[in-house]
Write a structure and sequence with these properties.
This protein is α/β, with parallel strands linked by helices and 262 residues long. The chain has twelve helices and five strands.
């Protein structure tokens, strides 16, 4: 009994010194299982440390998810792929996170309400679980952030800081047009990450209409060239999920200014 108490005290001390209090719980919980199964010392130690590593990874992922600014947590498990079967295989492959190690981008195109943001957030959460730092914001929020940095004379510093994030998600490109200065700042964000770190972008507009969003066909073309050079482009189709059972089958068509006047 005395030996058991001394060992428990020693485990308390050692786990505290290592700043790994979960080791004590795992060691205690697995001890009987190890004896009954006849584990070797090495197998028992590996099992205890595996529990600690798994717990730390889960805790770190949760911190990264909270810091990413997703708002609502939308996982890939919650996505209704029956409504978007064409992208199921691609999303499953992208969920592995391999695109991040290759600094590849993902572009999700499609009408409003087809699940673009859900998939972007879901992939972002997976990236957090794989150990990557992620930031999420709408395109207008990103422009506001870059504008503030530019006015404060720290845009290069801000762009360098953002490159340390493995993934940046830009939601809702195309919902609001950009002024020329804003378009140039957004182009700098894209250029700074080109072949260095990944982007996920969602847009309700095809690439052919991005010129009207950024107010300059040349800037738009240069931006698209950098985005899609190393990218997976997924197109979502169908009616808005948000309009189901509302008696509304379609939304108004989205047209560029030039198309409206023709």
């Amino acid at each position: 009994m005395t030996d058991t108490i001394d060992t428990t005290k020693q485990l308390h001390y050692l786990s505290s010194a290592l700043k790994a209090p979960r080791i004590l719980h795992a060691a205690t919980r697995l001890a009987d299982q190890a004896r009954d199964a006849g584990w070797s010392f090495e197998e028992y130690l590996a099992a205890v440390l595996e529990r600690e590593v798994s717990a730390r990874n889960a805790s770190g992922a949760d911190l990264r998810i909270r810091a990413a600014g997703f708002g609502a947590r939308k996982t890939l498990d919650d996505f209704d792929f029956d409504q978007q079967p064409a992208v199921r295989t691609q999303i499953a492959a992208l969920a592995s996170g391999a695109f991040l190690t290759e600094a590849r981008n993902i572009v999700l195109l499609g009408p409003p309400g087809t699940g673009k943001t859900h998939l972007a957030v879901g992939l972002g959460i997976q990236a957090c679980r794989h150990g990557h730092r992620v930031l999420f914001a709408t395109a207008t929020d990103w422009v506001t952030r870059l504008t503030d940095a530019h006015r404060a004379g720290r845009l290069p510093t801000e762009l360098a800081r953002l490159r340390r994030y493995g993934l940046i998600i830009v939601d809702e490109v195309g919902y609001l047009p950009f002024e020329q200065d804003a378009a140039n700042l957004f182009f700098q964000l894209v250029s700074s990450r080109y072949e260095h770190a990944s982007l996920i972008l969602t847009s309700n507009l095809p690439f052919s209409s991005w010129g009207s969003v950024f107010g300059d066909q040349v800037v738009a073309a240069a931006m698209i060239d950098r985005i899609v050079h190393h990218a997976d482009v997924l197109t979502l189709k169908g009616a808005s999920y948000r309009l189901r059972n509302r008696g509304i089958d379609t939304l108004p068509s989205i047209r560029t200014t030039n198309e409206t006047h023709n």
